[in-house]
Specification:
The chain is α/β, with parallel strands linked by helices. Helix content is about 35%, strand content about 25%. The longest helix has 18 residues, at about 170-185. Bound molecules: adenosine-5'-triphosphate and magnesium ion.
């Protein structure tokens, strides 16, 4: 069993002379095989949290551990997919995916080749392996970024809105892949998504991040909703909770339903 744990995380940014507090005293535990969905309004700090969990940024206070050891950038058991694909434009699809294996111990050329092919197959992009990434569609680029995370065969997978540019069937296929990785291979998944249906379908737990408090204010358990009516009610409850948390600067045409 593995455990990814964040304790008492605080993170703020400096903008000009102002200090912008984002996360305050945030706690999170994710176990092997568990899918935890993070939901919250835009600007709440979801991507900030993922960067801290991946060890790519340091918290002002608090700490992140994986099986009791501090997480650092490049920790082999972790892989992260960012909100923006951040592909290397001078490399083709295959080499961008292979880039995910850098610094990974025990990965010789033959293993790397096998793993890259498998990751590309998992996201349905094997046929585009030689294509330059500069010509990819938004959804294809997103899938290359997902493959670059999967190729590490991580024990914990951190995904920041991974499917936002995809058509429904592709999205559903990749949802199934994530579920399978968690269920059959025991991968722990932290998924940031704005899609409540996706969160309800994939998540064992849903955590609502509040921009006001900078931490999780509610936890939901979609698997307890056996009947579709209960799921529908939960989705409505989540929508209402997101409206309530919205930044106090509504767009001129918006109206609380
Ligand atoms: N490097 C930075 N410097 C200053 N402010 C930052 C920086 N990175 C993020 N922020 C601010 O911190 C807040 C949280 O940003 P973050 O990207 O974590 O939000 P988010 O919940 O992922 O939003 P979205 O759903 O829109 O992706 C935002 O107000 C953002 O403007
Ligand atoms: Mg974000």
């Amino acid at each position: 069993m593995g455990l990814l744990k964040a304790e008492a995380l605080c993170k703020s940014y400096i903008s000009g002379r102002r200090r912008i507090p984002v996360l305050r005293n945030l706690h999170l535990e994710v176990r092997s095989g568990e899918v935890v969905c993070i939901i919250g309004p835009s600007g709440a700090g979801k991507s900030t949290l993922l960067r801290l969990l991946a060890g790519l940024d340091r918290p002002d206070e608090g700490w992140v551990t994986l099986n009791g050891r501090p997480v650092q950038s490049g920790t082999p058991e972790l892989a992260v997919m960012f909100q923006n694909p951040l592909l290397l434009p001078w490399l083709n699809v295959r080499d961008n995916v292979k880039f995910g294996l850098r610094f990974l111990p025990g990965c010789n050329a033959a293993i790397a080749q096998e793993r890259v092919a498998m990751a590309l197959r998992q996201v349905g992009l094997l046929a585009l392996a030689d294509r330059p990434v500069t010509v990819l569609s938004g959804g294809e680029a997103q899938r290359v970024a997902l493959a670059r995370a999967l190729v590490r065969q991580p024990r914990f997978l951190l995904l920041d809105e991974p499917f936002s540019n995809l058509d429904v069937p592709t999205r559903q296929e990749l949802n199934q892949l994530i579920r399978r990785l968690a269920l059959t291979e025991g991968v722990g998944v932290v998924l940031v998504t704005h899609d409540l249906e996706e969160a309800l379908h994939l998540g064992d737990r849903l955590l609502l991040l509040s921009p006001q408090t900078g931490n999780f204010i509610r936890e939901y358990h979609p698997r307890d909703c056996v009947h579709s009516l209960a799921r529908h009610r939960l989705q409505e409850e989540l929508t209402a909770a997101l409206w309530a948390l919205r930044a106090r600067e509504p767009m001129s045409s918006s109206q609380n339903p």
